[in-house]
Amino acid sequence: MTVDETQNLRPDKNHGIPDSTFVASHVQKTPDSVKTYWVARDELLPLLKELKPIYPMLFDLFGIDERHREKATGQPHADFTVVYHLLSFEKSAEIRIKISIVEPETVPSIVSIWPAANWYEREAWDMFGIVFEGHPNLRRILLPPLWEGHALRKEHPARATEMEPFSMSEELLDAEQEALLFRPEEWGMTQENEDSEFMFLNLGPNHPSVHGVFRIALQLDGEEIVDAVPDIGYHHRGAEKMGERQSWHSYIPYTDRIDYLGGVMNNLPYVMAVETLANITVPDRAKVIRIMLSELFRISSHLVFYGTFAQDVGQMSPVFYMFADRERLFGIVEAITGGRMHPAWFRIGGVAQDLPEGWDTMVREFIDSMPARLDHYEKMAMQNSILKRRTIGIGEYNTSEALEWGVTGPSLRATGLDWDLRKKRPYGGYDQFDFEVPTAHRGDCYDRAVVRIEEIRQSLRIIRQCVDNMPAGPYKSEHKLTTPPPKDRTLQDIETLIHHFLNVSWGPVVPAGEASVMVEATKGLNGYHLVSDGGTTSYRTRIRTPSFPHLQMIPLISRGLMIPDLIAIVASIDFVMADVDR
């Protein structure tokens, strides 16, 4: 029986399923209401090819170890599951395709359909040992070459205390050094061609212009870049694995450290995913507080980008001005939350506490002063002739290429696509706000900066509406799984106090199921896919970050350019390595 027959899914119903006869072994219902279909292995490639014109972006690809799951009702038997999460910008819709794997089965690679699948498939092999047949270079991407095992399998330890103390013998040291030797052929490069012998150069992993522990292996013909292959994983610290060992509540501070410039923006998709699983409704006041803090952090992140972007192309002054503004902003964040860069202030069901007295005065002073300062920066940086010559026409890509490689956020809007999740599919209360979506048209380094700078102005506009229209009411839901429960209730009776203690120490018991929530984060679409097995911890925490696919595009937009052009490209992408490696 076909999906079309079982679910009456036709294109005119906007489900996006082509009028085909592919066999779905199961249609899965999920709390997030995303259409989810299980298909047979031999149906995968034909189906994805058919879906691509409707869902042009491979938003995410990841694995799930199903072997210890007890409440996976309503889905086929599997040792592992591979999830393909596709996104349509025209329909503002998404779809999930799943295939089940019983070891030692392999999965066909989809790199020929979406080039962005290259890194995602390498990550799934690295973390789960899932073999993608036909992948051009299936090797580790986040863990060291000689790492033993696959870290996201359930049998792999989640804590250092569960492993033997680390030691390195001389033999192991020699093996590690041998594994680190650079061999161009392993990176898809050749030593020479008919005309010349190439030079190879390491940019990073410890160099200020690569913005973190990030390495790019350069193949050079004189000063011209023949190829530039990114090498990531130096900042990997097992953020998804930690999601399986922490309670639903205690994992919130870990999310702050993903895009560490985004602050509470990282909390938002996580807590919204938990709220979706638990069917928690967030009060209006909490929604507006969340939006205000998120937009403050959007400004903070963009100020860091703005200053360092100008600095990387040779202009030193702007970064000092913009970091001064960022410090003023952090003063507001600290007054409201008690923290600065990583306040971990959002909670399941709302926020940690209500706004303090005088918060509105501080926020108004900031948003009143920033427009004039942005005008000054425009003359100082963006109208600078050297910055323009270094960035206009450099690192260009069009909308079609951006979709192929999974580019989202300001870097996608710089190509001219007017698509912002806050507008096209509002979440968390954004439908109540009036703001514009900045776009550009060239998709080059300069335009990527232009879009982010205009986004600062739009964030100021959103924050002003928050201040002017902050609703009254509770700052946290009264739902029993809200963590922690409202403080005043814990002082009334022993049952509520016990409930508070258990929710904080063990975590709430979240109903079994899975849910994905994405937000328009500072650098693009950031999403959390959470799987609950009906316990106090997550069975699977998948973090989809925007920076991961963005870096994969570097070879495409840097070939034929010079090394200084590559520095401008890296600066314009706006990434942090914690967001890439997790």
Write up this protein.
By secondary structure, the protein is of the alpha+beta class. The protein is built from 21 helices and 15 strands. The strands form five sheets. The protein has a five-stranded mixed sheet. Strands 8-9-10 form a three-stranded antiparallel sheet. It has a three-stranded antiparallel sheet with strand order 13-14-15. The longest helix has 29 residues. It starts with a helix and ends with a helix. The N terminus is likely disordered.
Termini separation comes to 41 Å
Instruction: Determine the mean pLDDT.
Output: 90
Give the overall shape, derived from the CA principal axes. globular
Specify the helix fraction band. 25-40%
Number of helices: 21
Number of strands: 15
Strand content: 15-25%
Order of the strands making up the biggest sheet? 1-2-5-4-3
Oligomeric category: single chain
Determine the structural class based on helices, strands and strand pairing: alpha+beta
What can be said about the biggest beta sheet?
5 strands, mixed
Q: Give the low-pLDDT segments.
A: 1-15
The gyration radius over C-alpha positions equals 24 Å
Please describe the structure with a list of short key phrases separated by commas or semicolons.
38% helix, disordered N terminus, globular, 582 residues, 3-stranded antiparallel sheet, alpha+beta, 21 helices
Task: Please provide a brief summary of the model.
With 582 residues, this protein is an alpha+beta fold.
Tell me the layout of helices and strands.
Elements: H1 3-7, E1 24-28, E2 35-39, H2 44-51, E3 57-65, E4 80-88, E5 93-101, E6 107-108, H3 117-128, E7 132-133, H4 170-180, E8 199-203, E9 215-221, E10 224-231, H5 239-245, H6 252-256, H7 267-278, H8 284-312, H9 317-337, E11 346-347, E12 350-351, H10 359-382, H11 385-391, H12 399-404, H13 410-413, H14 421-424, H15 445-468, H16 487-490, H17 494-505, E13 513-520, E14 525-532, E15 538-544, H18 547-552, H19 554-558, H20 563-573, H21 577-581
Parallel strand pairs: 2-5, 6-7
Antiparallel strand pairs: 1-2, 3-4, 4-5, 8-9, 9-10, 11-12, 13-14, 14-15
